[in-house]
Amino acid sequence: MPKRAIASPKVFKSSRPFAQATLAGGFLFVCSTGRDAEGKFVVGDVRAQTQQTLDNIHALVEEAGGTMDDVVKCTVYVTDRANWEPMNEVYFANFVENPPHRVSCIVSGLGSVDCLVEIDATAYLGRD
Fold this sequence. Notes:
By secondary structure, the protein is of the alpha+beta class. 23% of the residues lie in helices and 28% in strands. A six-stranded mixed beta sheet has the order 1-2-3-6-4-5, with helices on one face. 30% of the residues are buried. The mean pLDDT is 94.
């Protein structure tokens, strides 16, 4: 089956030609940051941005017909080691039972200086 773009009005749409999410072969590929629907990074610390990032992923997974229980893998990028534990607090509060496989990286920067965290997630929906 061909790939298909997934979009949600709850998630900021870039002016660049990025898909908010892509569904292919029963898998949904999503990547998000702590931007609100208007494109502004949420005010606060990494906790607020992590929650917004996960809310964006949640909205896109739901738009594709799934739930956060369908997320099988996440890669988390954090720009400051000091933000590691606060990010983890929020992340683990969102994946209490049966959490997805996770890879984590501390990076020197992301696409914007205001971006503290980015999460790349894969969900298995078992259908196209």
